[in-house]
Amino acid sequence: MDKSSGGASVSLVGFDDFDLATFIDPQITVVAQPISKIGPLAAEILLKRIEGDMSEPQHRRFATKLIIRGSVAPI
∠ at Cα 10 (25, 34), nearest 5°? Predict the structure, then answer.
C-alpha cells in the first residue's frame, strides 16, 4: 500500500476470491469459500424441494480460507 496516501492504516478484506482481487494494486485480501461445492449442493436441495421434499432444513458448513494479499495493513 502507498504509505504516502495514508492508506497504510486501513485494511480491506473481501468475501469470495473474485478474479478482480488479484488484478488491482494492492491485491485484495479475501475470505474464499468453495463455490464449486456450495452451488451444486444448493441446486440439489432446490430440486428436491421442487419435487416435494419438505424435510427439515439442514445446516451445512464449508471450510473457508483467508487469502492474505496486499490490502491489509500490518498490525
Answer: 65
Residues whose CB is less than 8 angstroms from the CB of residue 39 and which lie 6 or more positions away in sequence, other chains included: none
pTM equals 0.67
| Local structure of residue 64 (DSSP, 8 states) | -
CA–CA distance, 30 with 20 (Å, rounded to integer): 11
Q: Cα(27)–Cα(19) distance, rounded to whole angstroms?
A: 10
Tell me the pLDDT tens digit for each residue of 29-44. Answer: 999 999 999 999 999 9
- Residue 50 burial (CB count, 10 A): 8
